[in-house]
Amino acid sequence: MADYISPVFYDLLAVHSHVPGVREKLPSLLAGVRRSVLEVGAGTGLITTSLAEWTPAEIFALEPSTTMRAILLSRLAERPDLLERVTVLPCDAMGLALDEPVEAMLMINVLYALEPGYRRRLWPVLADRLEPGGLLVLTWRDGGPPKPRPMRHLDSRRVGRHTYTVSSEIIESDDERATCRYLYRITRGDEVLSEEELVGHAYRPAWEVLRDELVGAGYVRAAAPDGLLAWRRA
Ligand SMILES: C[S@@+](CC[C@H](N)C(=O)[O-])C[C@H]1O[C@@H](n2cnc3c(N)ncnc32)[C@H](O)[C@@H]1O
Could you report how far apart the first and last alpha carbons of the chain are, in Å? Predict the structure, then answer.
């Protein structure tokens, strides 16, 4: 998990950020997927449970973080139908082991967490576990990492009498990596009940860098809606 993500705040914020757009755009891309799909970095399962509605395929949800995986399993525990169909893999992407290659793979908001050397080594590993012609879908935002900027408010959510607020600062960045500081605060009125500061890195490769890595690993680009990239194993 990126060092600056708070599992406590994750769902509260994610359901209002990338999740609605992904839920709108992914179903058409997955229309032909019937047998198996792997979600790399499934997090708390916000996309996993939707996946089960869009495709009849068996689902493999890979998530290395114990805290994120605990939330994912908690979500699945309430859905006996999904417990039949979703296998949770407690490893990171490089440690992926499957009995047979999958028909499709998803990486939703995971790319930014992958250090460049790791990312370059990962594409062939994933290709090896993907069926020939199989689909790889990534969320994607061009433009490189964000420029340094001071701490600013990102979002707030009410939970009963308390407010959950996240702010962030970009401390420094180069052509691919940004160092980010996140501040997670729970307040009741003016009283601060808890405050946690997390610092970590986010990676946003340039388009040419990512394209060359994927083409070099044997993927061919396919059509995808804005904000997503789709590739097929040659
Ligand atoms: C921003 S969360 C996205 C979670 C989920 N895909 C979603 O859209 O809600 C990124 C997830 O990627 C996972 N992750 C980070 N590095 C990873 C790696 N090397 N292999 C697999 N997952 C990783 C993190 O643990 C985290 O749960």
Answer: 30
